[in-house]
TrEMBL record:
One of its GO terms (cellular component) is cytoplasm. The gene is pyrH. Pathway: Pyrimidine metabolism; CTP biosynthesis via de novo pathway; UDP from UMP (UMPK route): step 1/1. Homohexamer. It comes from Haloferax elongans ATCC BAA-1513. This is Uridylate kinase. Gene3D superfamilies: Acetylglutamate kinase-like. It is found in: Cytoplasm. Belongs to the UMP kinase family.
């Protein structure tokens, strides 16, 4: 099975901790041993937001702030590469072709950000479409997509399941400033919709949750079902 896993910076590197990175690397390696072809995309986390905040105070515009964020996501990608064994492409790809070439060679590919005006959520969705992935997983800091930000609104309710167009509607109003927080960004949601990409949004704080979700579809987060798409056959057994 070919899977793209987006590891949010909030779960990979809310702060710098080698053991936490090791925990995510261990799950990725387990999935590779189970025969998965893997593209990983990592976010910027706390360090990105520290740099973005400082640069904003210095008067940088949003594109400049995005560029700083991209650089931090690429450093985080190098951290995960360092924790992965020999089967990982040592380079952080600058584009989807390089990532796709590595995955087709049988290597694990680890991307960071690629261009201003989006987040790594969109990178993961575009990579999943480009390599025709069977599944896209967002390991983020909440256990799914809610009707509103659950950290701000106690009345927010979780979607167990939703269509990509419902996802577009729910996250459409979330601001898109550099460093803003969203379980999936708007561009990612639109890419998931057009690609009819089977997607799971789950709490990846404990990376162990990723494995059963990928291998058996077992999780407590949100299933994003492509309209007109069927349940993936690999979970039929
Ligand atoms: N509708 C929503 N559903 C779930 N989380 C939301 C929603 N709106 C905003 N959020 C916020 O998005 C955060 C996840 O985004 P972010 O911090 O960028 O994670 P990541 O590091 O995975 O990109 C959650 O912790 C939550 O506070
Ligand atoms: O392709 C990308 C990826 C990231 N970013 C910038 O880098 C920041 C950190 O990336 P992301 O939000 O994906 O990290 P996370 O939310 O997972 O910590 C984003 O807010 C954007 O400002 C960007 O401009 N383009």
């Amino acid at each position: 099975m070919r899977v793209v896993i987006s590891i949010g910076g909030s779960v990979l590197a809310p702060n710098l901790d080698a053991r936490r990175v090791e925990g995510h690397a261990s799950v990725v390696e387990t999935l590779a041993r189970e025969g998965c072809e893997i593209g990983a995309v990592v976010g910027g986390g706390g360090v990105a937001r520290d740099y973005i905040g400082a640069a904003r105070d210095l008067g940088a515009n949003e594109v400049q702030l995005d560029q700083i964020g991209i650089d931090v996501t690429r450093i985080n990608a190098r951290l995960l590469i360092a924790a992965l064994g020999s089967q990982v492409d040592p380079k952080v790809p600058h584009d989807y072709e390089d990532a796709g070439d590595a995955i087709r060679r049988g290597d694990i590919s680890v991307m960071g950000g690629v261009m201003p005006g989006q987040t790594t959520d969109a990178v993961a969705a575009a990579l999943a479409e480009y390599v025709d992935a069977d599944l896209l997983v967002y390991a983020t800091s909440v256990d799914g997509v809610f009707s509103a930000d659950p950290n701000e609104d106690d009345d927010a309710t979780k979607f167990e399941e939703m269509t990509a167009s419902e996802l577009v509607d729910v996250i459409g109003d979330i601001e898109m400033n550099a460093g803003s927080s969203a379980p999936v960004d708007l561009l990612a949601a639109k890419l998931i919709e057009r690609a009819k990409m089977r997607t799971i949004v789950l709490d990846g704080t404990d990376p162990e949750r990723i494995e059963p979700a990928v291998l058996r579809g077992e999780h407590t987060g949100t299933d994003i079902i492509p309209e007109g798409g069927d349940e993936p056959t690999y979970w039929a057994q």
